[in-house]
Each structure stands twice: as C-alpha cells, then as structure tokens.
Amino acid sequence: MSFPEYQDDGFFTSGHxxxxxxSEALALRVILNTIGSNAIAVVPPSCxxxxxxxxxxxxxxxxxxxTTLESTAATASGVKRALNARGKEDTTVICxxxxxxxxxxxxxxxSSAVERNEDLLYICFDNEGYMNTGGQKSSSTPLMAVxxxxxxxxxxxxxxxxxxxxxxxxxxxxxxxxxxxxxMVAKVNKAKEIRGFKFISVLIPCIAGWGLSDDAGIRLARLxxxxxxxxxxxIEDGHRYxxxxxxxxxxxxxxxxxxxxxxxxxxxxxxxxxxxxxxxxNRLQQKLVTSEQPIRMQNL
Length: 300
Prior knowledge:
Blueprint: H1 23-35, E1 39-43, H2 47-52, E2 64-66, H3 72-85, E3 92-98, H4 100-104, H5 107-116, E4 121-126, H6 161-166, E5 172-176, H7 181-192, E6 198-203, H8 207-210, H9 217-227, E7 233-236, E8 240-243, H10 252-256, H11 267-291
Parallel strand pairs: 1-2, 1-3, 3-4, 4-6, 5-6
Antiparallel strand pairs: 5-7, 7-8
C-alpha cells in the first residue's frame, strides 16, 4: 500500500458541515489542493454545495459560483469564456456536482458542453442517489439498492455515464475513488494539462444513504474498486482505454455486506449482481485490448 502523495496547501478548510465520516470531504480536500489557487469552482445544489457553505462563507480557498441544479455545465461554460475574454485562459474552471445534477437534471447542459468540447474540468461526486434531499434514487443508483423512492430496491441498473461521455469523443474521461488518493491526484493533474472537456467521476459511499457506520466510507470505496463494482480506468479521445487497478481481489458479496440498502437481497440476487459485474469487467478488458490495436485505414 502506497502513502498519499499530495501537498495540502489549505484550499479546503475546517469548519465545513460534511457528515461525520463523509468521504466527499476527503475527495474535495485532495482535488482542491491538487488544482491549486488559479481556479474557479461552479457548484450546483448538492451535498458539495452544503459542505462548501452558504455565500458569502466558504470552506474552499478558491472563488465559488453556486448555480442551479440543471445548469452547471452551461454556467461553467460562460465563466470560462468570460475568463478567456479577459486573457485568463490558464484559469481552471472546475464543476463540482453530484450524480443527480450530472446523470439526471444537469445532463442536457452537460451533454451540450461536452459536444462543444468546452475547456472545463467536471467532477461528479457519485453517491448514487439524491442524498441531500432525503436519499431518493437517481439514474446512478445501482440495481436492487433501497432508496427513499425505491423501498423494495431499484429495478433497473445504473446508467453508464462514463461510456456515454466517452461516446462524445471528448479528450478525457476517468473514474477514481477516495480510497486511491494517488490515483485521484494523478488523474486531476493529468486533466489540468488537457485542453477541452474533462470528466472525472468519484465514488462517494454515503454514510446515511447507504446505511454505513461512520468509519466505513473509505473501506467500502476500496471494496468497490477491488470487487470491480467501481473499476478505476480512464479513456482518452473516446477510444484509448487504460485500467488503473488491474485485478479483482474481492467479491460483490463482500462489497454489499454492511450496507443497509442491500440487506434485503437474496443469495440468488447477489449471484446475479456478481454476474453483471463480471460481464462489465470482461467488456472493459476487451476494450483495453481493442484500444491497443493500431488504427487501420479502410477503403472507402
């Protein structure tokens, strides 16, 4: 196990109101200190907006623009273009949104900004539900997970946002986890150097919404990676895949254990969820092989 390799320069302060044990606070600390001072954050209504604090107070050491839930990417596009007009092209505009404002309500503006290849860094803190408003399901909520609006478990699978955005052929799409801080730092640093739209999704186990003990967030995040439920990988230009955690060393059953949202599932349902993860893992492996093949011109 490697030790975290990042420097804390105070861009995320104490006094924030994250829940005890919330791994989003850790992820925010790492990301903001990696981004540095030459940045502006655009934040929609979300756990992140609450954690950062109400205007004019903020737990973040960079300027913050809080916007509406559906317009994060549109607002950030305007901020970036205004900076460019003032000759500040090197200022990073970073979106800090939840899965509800990314997968669902904000998707139209997100897809449009992606299609235009706006020069933005979009971070999605994916806690797999609308955890700031009572724990309702989002389209990021996984199969069989109990939420405030799916009391018997969600009947559909999680939307594959990473592949949807990769299909837009944008420069960079990646997943990361607060259990793998060096991977997170490396991906944020890499995204900072790329012009165009960059999207990084961070898994955030929710203490309240997932039914976890206060000290279980990072452990669950690590199990998500090790079981293949949340593979760490990156995609460049829509087709070049790179896997950052190359093996599965845990089972889905191990990952589900201890999460109150899954305590109703049967052994047969756990087996089906394991089969789904295995299928997704095998498809990802095939894409890794395909992306390594040379591109051959075809006769028209």
